[in-house]
Amino acid sequence: MRRIASSCKSGMLGSKRLQKQCDVSQSLNITLSSHLNLEMNVVTPFDPWKGKFCTCPPKYSFSPYSGCSHKCLYCYATSYIKVPESRPKANLERRLMRDLIKINRELPISMSNSSDPYPPIEASLGLTRRCLELLLSRGLKVMIITKSNIVVRDADLISRGNCTVSFTITTLEDGLASIIETGAPKPRDRLKAIKCLSQMGVPCIIRVDPIVPGLNDDEKKLRRLIEEVVKCGVRHVSSSTYKVKPDNLARMIKAFPDKAKYWHELYYEEGFRHGSSRYLRDDVRLNLMKMVKEIADDFGVTFSTCREGFTHLTTSTTCDASHLIPLRIKVRGLR
């Protein structure tokens, strides 16, 4: 919230669409700030670190589970969430209802940013589904972020509510995906889920995130990936480069020892530190993001980067595609 306001004042946001985002963000600034003073338990303001590269409009974050059973090697969240498997949060529905009384109802709820809301145990547990019933039936706006095709089970709720679904797909190669996203469904299963939801009128977004140098940055393969997701109904592409943390780099090097020297040079000798992560050089990141944008342009879908700072590449109204959330249900009483 503050980071967007300061970016607006300094002229950092380079597109007219993002200027509109600035105007909306500033108008919500005061209302969100007042709600930040209220103690909430499971629904929290997004991006508590207020990273300067993040241009997301104000929203909330909500995770039904702690930890993540998908066990992606590149995951950044494992540096501060020390739970190896997805674990349901205790008394979650009661805690969620308490928080809903306090939130700004104009803002969307992102589910989830640190742990997938559809881990394997969700298929039998149904915790995320019960939370969706509470949120969507009350007309709240929800943005689901997942790697799982289990989300299709809840298509009946999602297609009637104010909801979008973002799927992360980093590669179409089953072999590579099985290494870097060990516990996640195969890419082809995610494509089927996108097609199913899109056919039911659910706005779907693809997150090509992260792009790892020397691993999934081949232009022809990225073009094929974006072509396939657009065929399935995706309306927006978001992308980001791999951000190194000590624990995720150790996992990546263990899986790809031949890349150790290359990645060390890119991130530690040529790159720079931002917060608790190491970034690629600006020109390397920019070239990768421009490549993905040009592919998205070719297939007629909007594009944005995530936590890169390249706002001039954004071709959508919002970088997180929250503008695609359909308004099917009016907000009703939350008590």
Would you give an account of this structure?
The model is unreliable at 1-14 and 24-35 (pLDDT under 50). Helix content is 38%, strand content 14%. It starts with a helix and ends in a 30-residue tail after the last strand. The strands form 3 sheets. An 8-stranded mixed beta sheet has the order 1-2-5-6-7-8-9-12. A two-stranded antiparallel sheet has the order 3-4. Strands 10-11 form a two-stranded antiparallel sheet. The longest helix is centred in the first third of the chain and has 21 residues, at 16-36. The chain has helices at 2-10, 16-36, 92-100, 122-125, 127-136, 155-158, 174-180, 187-199, 219-232, 246-255, 260-269, 282-298, and strands at 43-45, 60-62, 65-66, 87-88, 109-111, 142-146, 163-168, 204-211, 236-241, 272-274, 277-279, 302-305. Strand 6 (142-146), helix 6 and strand 7 (163-168) form a beta-alpha-beta unit. By secondary structure, it is an alpha/beta fold. Helix 3 (92-100) runs parallel beside helix 5 (127-136) and helix 8 (187-199) packs parallel to helix 9 (219-232). It has a single domain (2-324), classed as Aldolase class I (TIM Barrel).
Summarize the entry for a quick read.
The protein has 335 residues and is α/β, with parallel strands linked by helices. It is built from twelve helices and twelve strands.
Low-confidence stretches: 1-14, 24-35
Based on Cα principal axes, name the global outline: globular
Order of helices and strands: HHEEEEHEHHEHEHHEHEHHEEHE
| Mean pLDDT across all amino acids | 89
Strand runs, count: 12
Please estimate the helix content.
25-40%
**Major sheet description:** 8 strands, mixed
State the CATH architecture: Alpha-Beta Barrel
Q: Report the total helices.
A: 12
Give the strand content.
5-15%
The gyration radius over C-alpha positions equals 19 Å
Please identify the top-level CATH class.
Answer: Alpha Beta
CATH topology annotation:
TIM Barrel
Strand order of the largest sheet: 1-2-5-6-7-8-9-12
- CATH homologous superfamily descriptor: Aldolase class I
Structural class by SSE content: alpha/beta
